[in-house]
């Protein structure tokens, strides 16, 4: 696990040293004057016996609390930032996932769809402050979730994905459905919009022609990352017994229409990739993100810590742990 770096301005270091020294001097002066007041106005030894404890103990813990408060104030002035390498999304996304029966083929572990689901959940965990929607498609398209920041709900939706009916692969309809839930027409938005299309086949249902689908989103600034799941080699795989008779005959590769994927990507200024092994699945999704150093200021965290320190100091002053009874 990478340890994040801390950046800050050292402009106020001398001020922090001065203030900490002042807190220490004032602490000991206040203790000295407090002891004199007790000796002047009361029987010190009697008070100690009644209370069952020493009067005016050298409460270094209180001193440390106040020093920490000063340090936190100076840190707020010093613009403390945490710097770490992170994946950054400059786009909002809709995941268009093929859930036809052929995605249950077990040439990936546990199945093609299962491998895609696990890779997607890991990918979503890397994305922050980004809206992501979900569309599935077999012989027709289904909107599962509009773009949302609720990654927990999205993870649950992805975990529950299984093959769907009717039979077929309606890629054109999936593109139109995905575009319809993206805010591609908002010219004031600074965010890009991307459809991540994952399929192991080719268009077999012409409810919406692919060319027509792409023309319909040309003005929406939507890019498509087209990802093909399968193999470039001519490999035959067994049909899972539970899918026998459900439009899931043994698949012979290559069954991917690479020309179609390339066309979809080029027409939208996107890109296309072929997943031909388990390791390439995660890398394919990561291409939609930018990996760079990210800075996050710690002002909110420092303010909360300072508030907690002030409350602790106040609690000592109003409880039996205060220096004077």
Give structural notes.
There is one protein chain. This protein is an alpha/beta fold and 325 residues long. It has two domains: 5-80 and 298-318, no CATH class; 87-293, von Willebrand factor, type A domain (Rossmann fold, 3-Layer(aba) Sandwich). It is 42% helix and 19% strand. It contains ten helices and nine strands. It has helices at residues 13-41, 44-51, 60-77, 112-126, 151-159, 171-180, 210-216, 258-267, 278-286, 299-318, and strands spanning 5-7, 81-88, 91-98, 132-137, 141-148, 192-199, 222-229, 271-275, 290-297. The strands form two sheets. The chain has a six-stranded mixed β-sheet with strand order 5-4-3-6-7-8, with helices on both faces. Strand 7 (222-229), helix 8 (258-267) and strand 8 form a beta-alpha-beta unit. Helix 4 runs antiparallel to helix 5 (151-159), helix 4 runs parallel beside helix 9 and helix 6 (171-180) runs parallel beside helix 7. The longest helix has 29 residues, at 13-41. It starts with a strand and ends in a 7-residue tail after the last helix.
Gross morphology is elongated
Helix content, binned percent? 40-55%
Q: Unreliable segments (pLDDT under 50, ≥5 consecutive)?
A: 247-253
In CATH terms, the superfamily of the largest domain is: von Willebrand factor, type A domain
Class inferred from helices and paired strands: alpha/beta
How does CATH name the architecture of the largest domain?
A: 3-Layer(aba) Sandwich
Side by side, the strands of the main sheet go 5-4-3-6-7-8
Instruction: Supply Rg.
Output: 32 Å
Oligomeric state, counting identical vs distinct chains? single chain
Separation, N- and C-terminal Cα atoms = 50 Å
> Would you report the number of β strands?
9
Count of structural domains: 2
Number of helices: 10
């Amino acid at each position: 696990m990478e340890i994040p770096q801390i950046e800050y301005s050292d402009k106020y270091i001398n001020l922090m040293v001065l203030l900490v020294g002042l807190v220490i001097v004032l602490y000991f002066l206040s203790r000295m004057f407090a002891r004199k007041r007790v000796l002047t106005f009361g029987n010190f030894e009697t008070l100690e016996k009644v209370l069952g404890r020493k009067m005016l103990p050298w409460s270094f813990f209180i001193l440390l609390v106040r020093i920490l408060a000063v340090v936190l104030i100076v840190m707020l002035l010093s613009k403390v930032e945490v710097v770490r390498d992170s994946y950054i999304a400059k786009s909002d996304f809709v995941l268009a996932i093929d859930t036809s029966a052929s995605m249950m083929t077990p040439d990936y572990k546990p199945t093609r769809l299962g491998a895609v689901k696990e890779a997607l959940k890991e990918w979503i965990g890397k994305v922050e402050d980004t809206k992501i929607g979900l569309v599935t498609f077999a012989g027709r398209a289904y909107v599962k979730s509009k773009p949302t920041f609720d990654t927990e709900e999205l993870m649950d939706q992805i975990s529950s994905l299984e093959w769907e009916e009717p039979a077929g692969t309606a890629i054109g309809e999936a593109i139109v459905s995905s575009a319809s839930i993206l805010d591609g027409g908002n010219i004031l938005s600074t965010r890009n919009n991307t459809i991540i299309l994952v399929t192991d086949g080719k268009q077999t249902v012409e409810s919406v022609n692919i060319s027509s689908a792409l023309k319909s989103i040309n003005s929406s600034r939507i890019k498509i990352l087209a990802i093909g799941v399968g193999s470039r080699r001519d490999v035959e795989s067994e049909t899972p017994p539970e899918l026998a008779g459900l439009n899931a005959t043994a698949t012979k590769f290559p069954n991917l229409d690479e020309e179609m994927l390339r066309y979809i990507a080029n027409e939208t200024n996107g890109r296309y990739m072929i997943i031909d092994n388990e390791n390439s699945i995660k890398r394919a999704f990561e291409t939609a993100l930018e990996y760079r150093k990210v800075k996050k200021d710690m002002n909110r965290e420092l303010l909360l810590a300072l508030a907690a320190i002030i409350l602790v100091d106040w609690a000592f002053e109003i409880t039996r742990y205060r220096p004077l009874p």
